[in-house]
Amino acid sequence: MTDIQKLTIGKALNLGLRRAMEEDPKVLIMGEDVGKLGGVFRITDGLQKDFGEQRVLDTPLAESGIIGTAVGLAVRGFRPVCEIQFEGFIFPGFDQISSQVAKLHYRTQGKIKMPIVIRVPFGGGIGAVEHHSESPESLFAHIPGLKVVSVSNAVDAYWGIQQAIKSDDPILFFEPKKLYHSGAMKSEVDTDATPDPLFKSRVVREGTTATVVAYGPSVKVALDAATAAEDEGKSLEVIDLRTLSPLDLEPVFESVRKTGRLIALSEAPSESSLTSEIAARVQQECFYSLEAPVLRVTGFDTPYPPAKLEEHYLPDLDRVLHTVDRSLAW
User: Fold this and answer.
1) Of 11, 131, 214, 299, which cross-links 222 as Cys (Cβ 3.0–4.6 Å)?
2) Considering only CA atoms, which of 84, 165, 161 is closest in space to residue 121?
3) pTM here?
4) Which pLDDT does position 2 carry in this prediction?
């Protein structure tokens, strides 16, 4: 009998983690407050109660210690899943991630694998203070040896976290925190389905006027903009990247060859970012199909602002629609 449940992204992650732990006793969860509290966003709620303190570990407030311990566990055959409480706290562990997690498989000529998943709640929109709303994903996508995933919906959250845990490669798993418990983002998850491949982009709305490519929390903004644009007689094609490294841009190239226009959307600052890479690759592959320059809608090249200003910082529906109009006017 098919098991279909309507889930939020947060609940889908919880069930995905649970299923991974049920299927493999080598899967461990570790991080600050992930046990008794269930994580600050309650993503690991109930897991320590059901699997015990030996498999769901509350750690000290030390990201370097969390990642360093995960490296040792991976060497011994475990599959650690680390939670970084907020994306702005990941940098004390950056050395371990870039120097050890990303390199040990290569350095040992394949003898040592690093099946580590690092879960990172990221992005703004929750009214938080400094270091709680950043989008540092481009920094990790730049590091050879790491894979970087960002989910935007409950289906990908449920299956994606399981696929990441089963991978022998280290994966940073970026989760849009403002959408964790959004009722508007609930979707039906078939827990008996065959999931899409993890490292493939997906067209989530077809269109002909212009292409909008996004990931994580920005996918909802892109879809909302596409709905609003339809009232103006414009048909936007929306593509969810799903994985940020390696980038699967073939669906983007195919779409741009059809529409002739591309808007790249992200909450991260624009300079030296994933949207920069997308723009460069698209003009390289689709130059003769473009009817206008690739345009970008991003956060600003400033530190993340105080909460009362974040609605002016984050890309929204109006900024996307304005950029579509700029592209069409070219």
Assistant:
1) 214
2) 84
3) 0.96
4) 65
